[in-house]
Amino acid sequence: MNGRERTLAAIRGEPHDRVPVSQHNFWFAARYAGLSMREFRSSPDKAAQAMADAAGDLGYDCIMTDFDTCTLAEAMGAEVEFPEDEPARVVRPAVRSLREVPNLPLPDPNRDGRLPLWLETTRRLRVKVGNELAIMGRADQGPFGLLFLLRDSQQFLMDLLEEEEAVIAAALEHCTRAGAAFARAQLDAGADLTSIGDSAAGQSVVSPHVYRRFAQPFEKRYREELGGMLSLHICGKTDQIVLDMAATGAEVLELDHCNNLETAFAAIGSRACVFGNIDPSSVLMHGTPELVIERSRQAIEAARRAEARFVLCPGCALGPHTPAANIAAMTEAARRFGNRDDAGNST
User: Fold this and answer.
1) CA–CA distance, 267 with 241 (Å, rounded to integer)
2) Is the pLDDT of residue 345 over 50?
3) Where does 3-336 sit in CATH, by number?
4) With contact defined as beta carbons under 8 Å apart, do 1 and 16 qualify?
5) Please, which residues bridge with residue 300 across strands?
6) For 212, which DSSP code?
7) CA angle 311, 313, 314 (to 5 degrees)
8) What percentage of residues in the chain have a pLDDT greater than 90?
9) Is the pTM of this model over 0.85?
10) H helices present in 88-193, as ranges
């Protein structure tokens, strides 16, 4: 099997030869190619070539395309700054009240802001890797995370306590429509599946009650509007909401390193495929290849015991100075410990 076949089979719960490996490493790929982040985010061909080369050299199966966390917010009116060698970031929100959000123009993914650059990168990456590797075309932020950027974040948290629920819901609905349009465009551009980050909705920022009340229903609606495979990533701890995340209908859940895989597998069952969850900092950035192989082995064996749908992956985006040898060590671990027989069972 090639990397694309292996990854898609794992996501769908179909027989495959070994555990696939995915990498969320756009910043690493830029540095590995000798590009500044400014060059990477402004040239679809350079970005696509950088991601294709990193995957080819280091042997993983699935590429996650990404640039930053604020491209949708920028397209909807947030002010963004662009450091030379760091991802872009919001410096001024787009609205002063949640009541203004439904009046923001819904961005056209093929025309507005930097969204066309993301899509062109996906198209060029598909040409460069053909059908050999899977592509997860990230569609930036989920509904809650996007609203967190469009409104001053601290004020938004106060809004959750003080604003009328209908006002919050209308703003989240608008963000859902904006995000789902971009996600559909990623699939049309050649991605096998798309992905959203909704980390502002995680346990590190809000309570599980807030997640279930304001974030999860709109993540679920996002998946329903999409009509294609979706991956949901929430940074930090999600042990108390992982079952709710699975209930969104997302085919993939990307779990951060601070979550217990065995707990997650037990909660999720066969509802979704888990991508995860090697620590991007202490293990991949600062560890050795031997440590990476050992932690990868542990994750693979946890998935085997649970008979889970699983793709080996960092728990979150890798830093630019992650050693290439440590990324390659994940592929080595999957080849050594993740083999499966023809029936799809671990051997």
Assistant:
1) 10
2) no
3) 3.20.20.210
4) yes
5) none
6) I
7) 160
8) 97
9) yes
10) 115-129, 143-150, 153-162, 165-188
